Amino acid sequence: MFAHYKYQKLQVGDFAIDNRAGISRTLHRISAIRNRKGTIIGLTCRVGRAISGSADLLRDLVQDGASLLLIGPPGVGKTTIIRDIARMLANDYKKRVMIVDTSNEIGGDGDIPHAGIGCARRMQVPDSDMQHKVLIEAVENHMPQVIVIDEIGTKLEAMAACTIAQRGIQLVATAHGVTIENLIMNPSLEILIGGIQSVTLGDEEANRRGVQKTVLERKGPSTFSCGVEIVSKTELRVHRCLEATVDAVLAGRFPRIEIRKMNSQGLEESSQTFTDISSDKEDLVVTGDLSETSDENSIGNHFPSDLSSKMADDSTEDRDLLHMYVYGEASVIQGLKKLKMDAAVQLTDNISEAGVLFAVLSKLRKNSGIQAAAKSHKIPVYVAKTSSSMQITKALEALKDDYPYGLKNPGSENDMNILEKVDALEEARIAIEQVVIPKEEPVELLPRPTQIISLQTELIEKYQLQSEKIGKGSDVRLRILPFKLVKDEDKSSGEDANANDFENFEPYGANGSPHGVDRLPLLPD
């Protein structure tokens, strides 16, 4: 037993300057954690597997000779797919494939590569800072038809990839990110999608496009012809024309994407195409100008414009379906799926048919035409402060709370919502009649959604009592106070006058609700 342990121990290679080591002819990776003196005090062992067929969803693109850029967060399977693509090109299509293996993740540790790459050859990189030089060396010395690169992360590596693409060599590479927009916002990697530059338009062209005079445009041709966003091990989002996707994102349009999935048996694949959401002026009815949203107004997550009336009209026709116009933010689909709102929200490319508009604050400010159209059609605007997934989710949660009937996937939940309202009102009534009035003690109610808290507030006011909101996020709840409600008519009329004076999109308070209540449900005695 001791001899076997000693034999296995000798298989682990030496730790390189990047604190990584491997086991010869395997795909496993071992990373070291060192203390301040350089002594190894911990290890992270990552098990690598070569899965044949993991790139079958991309076989048509690989066969056509397209240069592919795979994007995804760590651990989603980028290296596994790119390894299978290298095997597919070398074995199935008989091409000369050269892998530039930064940390021996594609071909494994040792001089003999893992069988998972098939007949492809690989060049090891002695130092990650030298990867761009190894890329150029691979082209000049080994006459490859395809070069496979794992983890392009620096500007030098991106420039080397751009040089290789200009020599007519097919490229397959990976980069960290979630969507194409992450690359656009990354100054080190933007050259992979053609680079971004600021362009000043003439008055006539700016009016024709309906944008400001200074806009962002793609600087040159993209290094890669296709982009692939890896959502999961069985789902990919394919951008067949990466240049068109970048142009659409910069113009504030929803890009054309193709979703490819593999079923549980791994035998069938399904695809779905989303059409462009255009911001052309022919889709807009503009009747006025909206001033740019001030920083002061950007504190909230959404800006209302006759929210309750517009959503009430939508709900009369289809209570479980909301038409959403998305302006310049493709990743909202992931947020809808995360919050399980995708079956209750339908994306539309016609702003006049939309019940709500969703946008990123910085992009909305740059397009006064969209702002004017939203105001003209009295469409509520929900705004994410940034394009990060957290801010997008936060804005979608505000939409979910404000919609009168909720935005969960359709089913039997309407009956549950009615029962929840009745239960919440009964809770408030019992607290008032049994504790607050007779004992003159405050009572905290259970956390409820925003629209239900509004119903409870109206019930409390009918008892001529005061209440206050406490808690944050999903823990917002009411506290009923044993104080008589004092109504100041002059003060309320002044507040109404000021409320009617707001310009354009004025945000609600942090816990406000736009919905009024015509009547309360009947409660049992």
Automatic annotation (TrEMBL):
Entry keywords, A to Z: ATP-binding, Nucleotide-binding
Presence of keyword tRNA-binding: no
InterPro entries: AAA+_ATPase, P-loop_NTPase, PTPase_dom, R3H_AAA, Spore_III_AA_AAA+_ATPase
Chain spans, region Disordered: 290-312, 489-525
GO cellular component, one term: chloroplast
GO molecular function, one term: ATP binding
Annotated Pfam families: PTPase, Spore_III_AA
PANTHER family hit by this protein: KINASE-RELATED (PTHR20953), P-LOOP CONTAINING NUCLEOSIDE TRIPHOSPHATE HYDROLASES SUPERFAMILY PROTEIN (PTHR20953:SF3)
Protein name in UniProt: AAA+ ATPase domain-containing protein
Source species of the chain: Gossypium lobatum
